[in-house]
Amino acid sequence: LLSHFSYTGFWGLVNNAGISTFGETGWLPMETYEKFADVNLLGSIRTTLEFLPLLRKYKGRIVFMSSIIAYFTLGNGIYSMTKAAIEKFCDALRLEMKKFGVHVCIIQPGNYARSTKIQPPLSAEEIWSELSEEEKAVYNKEYVQERVNFFNNILSEGSTNGNEVVDAMVDALTSPAPKARYMVAKLKEKVLVFVCALFPTVVMDSVLSYALSK
Where are the membrane-spanning stretches (predicted)? Predict the structure, then answer.
């Protein structure tokens, strides 16, 4: 593959692969954490390292799909974890690639669950059946159902205008002066990120705890 591109030139790489799931920390087995790290984080790193020689040679672009969920979590900490890690990888790569004329851009979509179908609606019964006996002793079905209802409601509010994210990706690939980060989100989502980034952690914890209690 690389030998083919070395003749034709190589301009842009978009790392878009990703998977999502829901569950509190102790609900998910270690195998799930490993799978998410492999797909959402290491998959993008593997692809980037493979094409890096050509991207340097042709002064290309590298685009990564992150999420505003890199800043906070509402029941899908495993997804947040991988997106936060991608952000830090990109920050290092962006600085390192400047001397080669390679731009590294991050796309940070808000809730586009209805566009991407990355996360199907949840079933409380299915989640409960997969919990360990230790977790079942701590939680109950009613709690799991409440969390599922909360998360499914978030999914139902997702935007269907996926073209907005695609437009940001195109700009990152073609603009003479691309942005380091493209946050494509609703105003309330941007406000949540703003609070998370600039206010003390105790404030953000209070905001998220309030949201989770509703």
Answer: 62-79, 191-212
Q: Most distant CA pair in the chain: distance in Å?
A: 61
69-86 pLDDT, tens per residue?
999 988 889 999 999 999
Instruction: Judge whether 143 counts as a catalytic residue.
Output: no
In a domain, 89, yes or no: yes
pLDDT at 116: 86
For residues 54 and 5, is the Cβ–Cβ distance under 8 A? yes
Catalytic option among 7, 58, 71, 79: 79
Per the model's pLDDT, the better-predicted residue between 1 and 52 turns out to be 52
Instruction: Quote the number of domains for the chain.
Output: 1
> For residues 43 and 34, what is the distance between their CA atoms, to the nearest angstrom?
12
Q: Is the pTM of this model over 0.85?
A: yes
Task: Please provide the DSSP assignment of 143-212 as one string.
Answer: HHHHHHHHHHHHHHT--S-THHHHHHHHHHHH-SS--SEEEE--HHHHHHHHHHHHS-HHHHHHHHHHHH
Average per-residue pLDDT for the chain: 90
